[in-house]
Amino acid sequence: MKPSEIQRGSIISFHRVGRTNAQRARQLHICKQTVSRWLQRHKDTRNLTDKPRTGRPPCTTSEQDQQIRSAVEKNPLTTSLRIIEHQNLWKPHLTEANIEKRLEYALEFCEKPAIFWENVVFLDEKTFYSTDRRATKVWRKNGTR
Hints:
This protein is mainly alpha-helical and 145 residues long. The protein contains seven helices and no strands. It has helices at residues 5-16, 21-28, 32-45, 62-74, 80-86, 96-109, 114-117. The longest helix has 14 residues, at 32-45. The model has no long low-confidence stretch (mean pLDDT 85). Pfam families: HTH_32. It is found in: Nucleus.
């Protein structure tokens, strides 16, 4: 677990008053390597903030993010799928190549005789319920209830 900004500042303060890394680590309930790493980073950069992290870039714009927040504020019981549909954020997973392959497959098998289909096993079964069996979720800001 990474130390909080207060703990990072304490690491530097304890260093200035002459405490050892082991003493600092014990007092802050963190490991010695963490103390050493933050001391080195402070020495190199004079900074105690986290470095920017790499990761997947956002797939929505700030305007879309605001629209999503507004939708949730209007109806906290809405689902993510409803928001996606309402905001036109959903994109089909089929490419032109997928569509062409499916059409070729359908055309190849559409003329098969009934006897052919008696030996085909369909594995894409789906169960349907007449009631909503999912848990109700509510969107809330942190710290509100």
